[in-house]
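Subject: Sanity check before I submit

Could someone independently write out the structure tokens for this chain? I want to compare against mine line by line before I put it in a report. The sequence has 312 residues.
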Amino acid sequence: MKKLAFATACLGLLVGVACSSGSGGGGGGAASNGSAFAQDFCNLIEPCCAQAGLGTTGTLCLAFADEAAESGTYDPAAGEACIAGMQAESGTPALCTYLGNDVPACSQAFRANGGSAPPGAACMQDSDCASAPGGGATCFTDFAFGDGGSNETQTCVQTMVGQAGQGPCIGIVEPSGTEYEWSGTGSPPSSGYTCATASGLTCDQTTQKCLALATTGAACSSDQDCVAADYCSFGGQGSACAVRFADGASCSADAEGCLATSYCDSSTMTCKPLLATGSSCTASQQCSSTQCVNDVCSGSNNLGLQLFCGTQ
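---
Independent answer below. Compare away.
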């Protein structure tokens, strides 16, 4: 019997503290404490807010940062590494798309303090659960399907950041958030590992262990199985990881093969960078917001940006 649970995406690194882990990043000084880290993070994403036509005062961003500081414990080494990684992405589509969620250190910048419910206890939300030493916890929703229908239970599962070969794994940490899944026999374990794609890992649902992402030419079932530079190409000889097409390259062979921050232009059949809010467009797929309204890229579908930036 397969049992699944999907976590709501922890959009943005500071918001992540309220989930099971958090992060952030910023742009300027050494983030030796949570306040400096928060200021740097908010400064870095301000251009993203402006590009999306959202608020640029930083008020909402800092408010979330204060909440993160109150809800978790800050790790200066991870915070500074997170900032450095986000600074390296400054000026690229990746920064405004992922808000640092694709930088491995960012998931470790804040550790949620957690509640008092022990592993295996009933829970309503992540904050009810006691965190693992040096790790986190999630309130795992388990759907058990049988002849009488489905039965939903929610129990605390402590989590640790996994390395290759460690198990059992119960979640895959992606830039968009963490997806929890348990396909092993019986109920979910009381503790398990999360495998981060940013660290080159995925959770193998057969062995229930963290496994290195498949490289070019290896078999795959979805993009999630492949290294970041690849996608899962479904061809006549079966599916295999293939290198994504660079901007300017032809995408006539596979319109899904462009970079995650690009699209396949149907008129030229070449990959082009996604358009910023306010740019002229003819189709929603051209816009980073995925919204082309009256021939103009409008708004932002990035909930993380909306939460941090607010409106003008």
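---
OP: Matches mine. For the report I'm noting this point. The CA atoms of residues 195 and 202 lie 5 Å apart.
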